[in-house]
What does this fold into?
Amino acid sequence: MSKPFDYTIAVGGEAGQGMLTLGLLLTKSLLKAGYYVSTLQSYQSRIRGGHNYFQVRVSSEPIHSMISRIDILVALDKNTLQLHCDELTADSVVLYNQERMQTAEVCGATLGLEISKLYPAAKSKEVLANSIYLGVLAALMQCPLSAMKSVITRTLAKKGEDIIRQNYAALDAGWEYLETQLAWKEKYLAPVPAKAQASLTVHGNQAIALGAMAAGCKFYSAYPMTPSTGVMETMAQFMDQTGVVVEQAEDEIAALNMVLGATYAGTRAMTGTSGGGFALMVETVSLTGIIECPAVIVNSQRPGPATGLPTRTEQADLEMAIYAGHGEFPKVVLSPGNHQDCFDLTRHAFNLADEYQIPVIVLTDQYLADWFTNVKPFDLSQVGIKRGKIVIPDSDYIRYQITEDGISPRGIPGKGEGVVIVDSDEHTEDGHLTEDLDVRVQMNEKRLRKMEALKQHMLMPEVIGEGDECALVCWGSSYGPCLDVVRALQARGGAISLIYFKQVWPLDETRISSLLSGYKKLILVEGNATGQLGHVLRGSTSICIENAIHRYDGKPFLFDELQEQVAVRLEVK
Amino acid sequence: MVTQTDFNSIQPAWCPGCGDFGILNALKKALVKLEKKPNQVLLCSGIGQAAKLPHYLKCNVFNGLHGRGLPAAQGAKIVNRDLTVIAVGGDGDMYGEGGNHFIHAMRRNLDITLLVHDNRIYGLTKGQASPTSDLGMKTKIQPHGVSNTPLNPIALAVSQSCSFVARAYSGNIEHLTEMIQLGIKNKGFSLIDILQPCVSFNKVNTHAWYKERVYDIQSQDLHYDPTNMPAALNKSYEWGKRIPIGVLFEGKRETFADHWEVLHGKPLVDQSIPEEAIQDIINSFL
It folds into this structure.
């Protein structure tokens, strides 16, 4: 059996230098070849200049997180060297273009490349340098070149055969050069894992968009906002195949109101935004509650308050999402932590929105939105579309019929003889505004009755591990780092489990309470400063989790650091 | 055969003598003349006295949030072009709170009609200035008189090549009915700004005030050409001694639906996404 490996490759440079292209090519190639991969994209809110980096962790074992160490650093500029010096170890290597930077005046070993000598065409066409680096990286790890070539062919298909041939040549030049550097050859040997399976190369935003398409979403309206824009881009990218209409709204308020117009008229529709845009939508979330039209809203979180850190990650909108909207009305908040759940929970969100005629919020964040890892191809045979109580309105149809479960038959306007009247005012059963206070009470109770069924049918947290000693409690994108930490500690003999909340609202108090009280020790892991899931759990179950690990520096939890933090707490007991 | 009584709904809760009654009446007449049935019509509105109108006319209704009637109307029209979609609201709703949506609805150019009950005052909140209130008008909030220049919705619409721009007066129901008919018939975004007295709060722009001033720009002797943009823009600034009503501008151009091939077939609401298409898309990520 070959030696296990776990390397992190980081590509850093100014925005516009092509580090994203290189990072993506590398990621796709490694996934294609069959490696276990996890990525982290960190970029600044600018189009040119600054410092951006793309990290790719590649391992012989399944991974779902990043680590703080860099093994191979591709420095496209000097800034990258300075900023990542601390993450390098004695075994790390820095690759750089000797023609651009005279020395890599840093710590550790360096490998200067004379890019234009390796492949002269790269002098005038700088993007070809990406393929040279890719060739060098492939040789360092002895990763099969065929995977890289097939990714290059696909990525550059539209640019023509000449360009593809040039990139092949650059790739070969990089590989051949490294083969002559005996000190480096095979230093980071990484044979393709035998058991690896086919993987989709999708980031979280794409997985959400695919979920929406599979759910039959025909209308998407949003205002561009990092890090949610990838959902809209993906919906637009495939509009010719799906026939979905994607409309860029003038603001987030318009986006959600257009979505409501569309769902009122009978179509499945969705919007996506980040915290600031979601804040603008909040009044309309409340409208959704009273008119009882379905709406699916993606909030891809970034650090606030206000503009905060526009391109970084955080999990600090949980309470805003749960409590969004004035007045009291049922809603659901889902919190996928991986790509499969991005896909599944988005489909589930559409079903819930239709069945209960409510707003459903899907909470993700920048880390998950941009994260690539091994993703089993999504299975459409599992897809069920549940539209709920949709009816053809007959001549005496009324929209808000009082029912036992609080869900009224939902007529589609124009499809029958009757008319469909929805109103943001408190209304009578036929939808007209009223100030009859008895009717108000009946209607409020009707809407809130849906909450009971929602709790009964809530998606219970996924529990990984056995025993009653200790459990990490997480939601959303902290799932990956927590999972890796729990697995690693279990392997070291630790009695530890993971409780991963994929639905954070509403909670079935009884079942959640009995789940949480089954452990001697709970540790909350949240990407925010105040412990928002902790507040929600305390409010719903009276269980107060005092042991908490927070992170709010704009980065996701990293495996090694989190493991350390958890280990300390376990020993303390 | 549809008649006006087919559109009867619950009793309006407007002030006696309100211009809104005339607008409601004219809208019913226009719908009957166009042979629309209640279930084919969707009225979208926000908040305000005008925004209550959809409740008083039997049809499909989306009475949403203040200022947000237009986005809901556009969402509904995109997914079901078979509906005759009309947005209705006051000057505060459409030009104030929803001003951004008004601008972008003109750009988007869906085949919908916007009726603005422009009474140049806030009625529902009892008499504050609106975006179209006259300079110097005194209110409880503006005791020294309004100091913000009134918005000129007609000039704004003409300058943005709005597909159809008309002005009407709630005191001339016959003319208003005709304007609404033309607006609905126009393929594209139609603005009908309706001058309307507020009998409770606006003591300046009264029926008598309007009657003295309005004149029909379509009078034959005027030879007005609503397709001439510079002329229309010029005309849109005529206000004071004489106020033109009628079709002020026709900026006919490609509509939203013209641009989207997927909207040329059956309505979006009746379309689904084939599973093979989704499978192909998923496979493209392999």
